Amino acid sequence: MRQLALLLRQAKIPVELDQLYLNEHAGGPNEGWPQWCEHHANKCEAVLIVASRGWFASYERKEAPGVGCGAAAEAALFQQYLYDEKGENLRIRLAIIDDLPKEEIPPRLRPWQSYKPFASSGELDRLVAWVTQQLGLKDVESPTIRWPKPLPDFEPDIANRHLEEWPAIRDMLSGKLKQRILLLEAESGYGKSELLRQSMDYAKRLGIPVCRLDFRANFSGVDEILGRLDTDLGQHLSNFSREGGNKTHLLIKDLRALRGPVLLLLDSFEKASGVFQDWVCQNLMAEVEGTLAMTMIVAGQPPLPDAWDIRWRAVAQRLPLGPINEAALWKPWIEKRYPGFREREVDLPTLVMASGGVPKTFSDLCRVIAGQPALPTR
Q: What are phi and psi of 339, to 5 degrees?
């Protein structure tokens, strides 16, 4: 709900939502929340009911006592409005964010148009068009992001990471994933940096601009991080770059205005100082929800920043990387990297057992068997 409200505001559509109001008025409304909700439910010329089982339970008065009181009050007002207007509904529509079968929508609300704004650009455009028409707005620009189609011929060379982690990365970069921050969390040797490298290659093939910040580098200050962002993304961030590439507020302003995706890769995040981690969390991660073209992959050893931070929990997904202990999952990787292993009669289960399923250890053993030096620890 919050993400949709921010998205509409980005299109310069006035939006009232209790969560946003509280961010801007820390003391809440002077008249109290019940009256605030009642006023906006009665007076707003366009009302979007974000479809949820909880809201519908309140609408049908099936919710437990003391639960969903605000939704119940709104629902009663809307029921009265529909009654007074003899069923003619000029200002209420449904926004369906999560999968919700049509039969779970109360019968009286089913006849009216509903929108799935995160399902496709077309759905979002139709929603914006209705709100624009309803409010009589002019020159509203749809906040639709132009996401590229996935590349079916790209095969990441990452053993079984293509089962969960790679689909999440692929779907995020095609705009199909609600989450736009992926947290790759694991100890050293589990393939985090390799996933980032392949994500960078894939994004570049999609035509997505990429900036990689590796915190193994000894950044001298935030200005150096901003400079790296300017170097890699400056041609897409006109105000930020023109003014020297060192002003955080211009960086955020330009990121919010983007209509094509960018990808930020943060490697070895556990090595960032507390100052850098706070800056990233407050100025990049906290902006992802309202900066619709920004995607991020953060890799590091545990613990990574709390994915339930209120500022970005709705758009974050944690992906802990574990060992790969099944020999069958390594077999395609072996055949691609080391086709001569078949002649050497290498026993894969033994190799997996010796490595503990840790990808770097397994890879080093394979290189030694193949007569190659082990890769340096990163």
A: -60, -20
User: In angstroms, rounded to a whole number, what is the distance separating the alpha carbons of residues 260 and 110?
Assistant: 34
Q: Binning pLDDT at 50, 70 and 90, where does residue 376 land?
A: low
Q: How far is CA 227 from CA 55, 273, 354, 357, in A?
A: 46, 18, 44, 39
Residue limits of CATH 3.40.50.300 in the chain: 159-320
Residue 217 has pLDDT above 70, yes or no: yes
Distance CA 151, CA 149 (A): 7
Q: How far is CA 12 from the centre of its chain?
A: 22
CA 165/CA 183 separation, integer angstroms: 10
pLDDT digits (tens, 9 = 90+) for 264-306: 999 999 999 888 999 999 899 988 987 889 999 999 998 887 6
Return the beta strands (E) in 31-129 as ranges: 47-50, 92-95, 114-115
Alpha helix positions (H), 136-191: 165-172
Tell me the fold of 159-320.
Rossmann fold (3.40.50)
CB contact burial 310-338 (16+ within 10 A = b; e otherwise) = ebbebbbebbebebbeebebbeebbeeeb
Single-letter amino acid code for the residue at 284: L
Q: Which of 263, 275, 267 is nearest to 186 (CA)?
A: 267
Rg of the chain on CA atoms, in Å: 25
pTM above 0.85, yes or no: no
Q: Which residues contact 284 (CB under 8 A, 6 or more apart)?
A: 264, 294, 296
